[in-house]
Specification:
With 45 residues, the protein is mostly helical. The chain contains 1 helix and no strands. The termini are far apart.
Length: 45
Amino acid sequence: MRKFVLFAVMAASLAVAACNTVAGAGKDVSATGKAVTNTAEDAKH
């Protein structure tokens, strides 16, 4: 039973870390997209 609880805690911590990593990557991609869009708009004018 103790091993199961330890495994569950480890799995939960990995899941939380993965969510934070994906969220951070999403923010980076979004910021890059905005920068490209702004550059394209500036090039038009």
